[in-house]
Specification:
- There is one protein chain.
- The protein is α+β, with helices and mostly antiparallel strands and 357 residues long.
- It has 4 domains: 15-77, MutS, DNA mismatch repair protein, domain I, CATH 3.40.1170; 78-137 and 145-164, Alpha-Beta Plaits; 172-226, Orthogonal Bundle (DNA polymerase, domain 1); 243-347, Dna Ligase, domain 1.
- It contains 13 helices and 13 strands.
- It has helices at 14-22, 47-50, 60-66, 77-92, 120-135, 147-154, 170-176, 187-195, 201-205, 209-216, 219-226, 257-278, 310-322, and strands spanning 6-11, 31-33, 44-45, 71-73, 98-102, 105-109, 139-144, 162-164, 243-254, 280-291, 296-307, 331-339, 342-343.
- A 5-stranded mixed β-sheet has the order 5-6-1-7-8. Strands 9, 10, 11, 12 and 13 form a 5-stranded antiparallel β-sheet that branches.
């Protein structure tokens, strides 16, 4: 097979950067999107906040302790989604082989591309320049011959950076990489590897495939291959999401139904908006309830018919909130998830997948 040319684009502190772009008073200041000083979780942090150890998924209370001058702003997911669509249009002007991982990052295969440009480096930097010109935001890019290396590369020179990992340098770079920097190795796995004396890619490469499988199951085969800079996964332009959801943590615990229902209605609108964007319907709706003591429960209902409107989602979520009874304890978080998704192309009669050679 010919060597692929893969780009990984990663927006820099995406949610926080959008807020700083739209509100000049936030520029140059530590910003946390989501949560509040009293409660909640940080969804994103600006680079000014990250210097204090503030990061996504950090409890807001801890974030405020680490950075007393931290500014909390409410997330605006509709705005982030709109900017994300704008960025993806730039991607599609170069290739249809785009695999979004989230609103703020994606893989692109530009081995063959729409502008006939042989250099992935030139394409990556053109894309970064267009993103900044059209959105006022910066992005970092990594270029290499497989997805694992492109992802690693995009993180090496953030923010607003570019890194190329060519074939002749790949094994050397992977060997020197700290094990916690490997994409696909989380904190728990990294700690386990470190306890085994595996601190770098070079250490990982010394282990046999059988040994890694014994300790980590099938994933051990993946670790064996990436230690050798090997990754044969293709860019998948049609990744299918299995569920669509939205949730919100409240600054003050909710105890009354008349306060919970408007929140459920907002969540239903957000879920319906994403379903419309993805041209999908659902058959299962789930409501998530997290109480003041962090205990949580879920309530679900599956239907024979298809659900897609915000009104329908809200009505179902309202009924689930009341069944078997309204929450008996103060509620700190509510969420709605739509699943058992059916995409528009799944409903086309006689639809058949084809392969182009």
């Amino acid at each position: 097979m010919p060597i692929r040319k893969i780009i990984h684009i990663d927006m820099d502190a995406f949610f926080a950067s959008v807020e700083q772009r739209d509100n000049p008073e936030l520029r140059g200041k530590p910003v946390a999107v989501g949560g509040s000083r009293a409660r909640g979780v940080v969804a994103a942090a600006s680079y000014e906040a990250r210097r204090y150890g503030v990061h996504s998924a950090l409890a807001s209370k801890i974030a405020a302790q680490r950075c007393p001058q931290l500014i909390f702003v409410k997330p605006r997911f509709e705005v982030y989604s709109a900017v994300s669509r704008q960025i993806r249009e730039i991607f599609y002007s170069y290739t249809d082989l785009v695999e979004p991982l989230s609103l703020d990052e994606a893989y692109l295969d530009v081995t063959e591309n729409k502008i006939g440009m042989p250099s992935a480096t030139i394409i990556a930097n053109e894309i970064r320049a267009k993103i900044q010109q059209e959105t006022g935001l910066t992005a970092s890019a990594g270029v290499s011959f497989n997805k694992f290396l492109a992802k690693i590369a995009s993180d090496m020179n953030k923010p607003n950076g570019f890194t190329l990992i060519p074939p002749d340098k790949a094994e050397e770079i992977v060997a020197a990489l700290a094990i916690e920097k490997f994409y696909g190795i989380g904190k728990v796995t990294a700690a386990k590897l470190q306890s085994m004396g595996i601190l770098t890619g070079a250490d990982l490469r010394e282990k046999t495939e059988e040994e890694l499988v014994r300790h980590f199951g099938k994933t051990g085969r993946y670790y064996y291959r990436i230690a050798r800079a090997q990754d044969d996964r293709e860019v998948q332009p049609h990744r299918i999401r299995k569920s669509i959801g939205s949730e919100r943590t409240f600054e003050v615990d909710l105890t009354e139904e008349e306060v919970m229902l408007p929140e459920l209605e907002r969540l239903a609108k957000e879920v319906a908006h994403d379903m419309e964007r993805l041209q999908t319907t659902a058959k299962t709706i789930t409501v998530k309830i997290k109480y003041f003591d962090f205990n949580q429960t879920t309530r679900s209902k599956t239907f024979l018919g298809e659900i897609k409107s915000a009104d329908a989602i809200f009505t179902i979520a309202r009924d689930l909130l009341r069944t078997p009874q309204l929450p008996a304890y103060p509620v700190r978080l509510l969420g709605i998830t739509a699943s058992s998704l059916l995409y528009q192309h799944d409903k086309m009669e006689g639809y058949q997948l084809t392969l182009e050679f």
